[in-house]
Amino acid sequence: MNVGPGHISPATLELLQIRALRFHDIVDELLALLENDLRDDSTGEDNPVSLSVPELMSVFLAELVDSERRRGTRPKAPDWYGPNEQLLFAVGHSGNALMDHAEQMFKELDSHHTHDTGCRCYELIDLLDERVNPAIDEFRALWAAIADLRRHWRSHPPTARPED
User: Fold this and answer.
1) How far apart are CA 123 and CA 138, in angstroms?
2) Pairwise CA distance, residues 146 & 149, whole Å
3) Shortest CA distance to 101 belongs to which of 140, 65, 127?
4) Given a cut of 80, is residue 119 above it in pLDDT?
5) Distance CA 10, CA 19 (A)
6) Where exactly are the structural domains of the chain?
7) Is 14 helix (H, G, I), strand (E, B) or coil?
8) Is-contact 138 26, C-beta < 8 A?
9) What is the pTM assigned to this prediction?
10) Angle, alpha carbons 102-103-107 (nearest 5°)
């Protein structure tokens, strides 16, 4: 998406936010897939399958209350921290998590010198080719589009910047 001078529309930020949400969902799905693959099937309080519905509701409500408590104690965001900066940090956070997991996959692949029966290297290579590399490409494209928007806003400040 080119957002250079003359290519900006009021919907550009919103379209980037939608792309960022989609990217975040893709990364969450990949991380869940990778973490489930690495995690053993343990039981206990960390495993939601082992909890009853009332226990799950209790855990959920406790987490919700804790989240609201933390949100109430956060300081007010500085004036310079607008929707564009929120977008930049959100995409950066998801991209960083994606890169960390990709690095772990590469380390695992590099550590294998022979491939025994049952080796998961081929699964990792397929996952890298089919899912991780396209997600990294989307991260790069989204990051560049956000940078273009930020450059445009610096050189052509809007009269009224969109609110949070």
Assistant:
1) 22
2) 5
3) 127
4) no
5) 16
6) 12-40+78-155
7) helix
8) yes
9) 0.67
10) 120
- Give mean pLDDT, residues 31-52: 63
Residue 34 in 3-state DSSP? Answer: helix
pLDDT for 1-11, tens place per residue?
444 444 556 68
Q: What is the pLDDT of residue 82?
A: 81
DSSP 114: S
Copy the structure tokens of residue 31: 């991380």
**CB 9 within 8 Å of CB 156:** no
Report the b/e string of 38-65 with b at 16+ CB within 10 A: eeeeeeeeeeeeeeeeeeeeeeeeeeee
* pLDDT at residue 164, as a whole number: 46
Checking if the pLDDT of 18 tops 80, the result is yes
- Scanning 1-160, the segments in alpha helix (DSSP H) are 12-38, 53-73, 83-111, 121-127, 133-155
Cα–Cα distance measured from residue 147 to residue 79, given in angstroms and rounded to the nearest whole number: 19
Q: CA–CA separation, 133 vs 138, rounded Å? A: 9
The pLDDT > 70 percentage for the chain reads 78
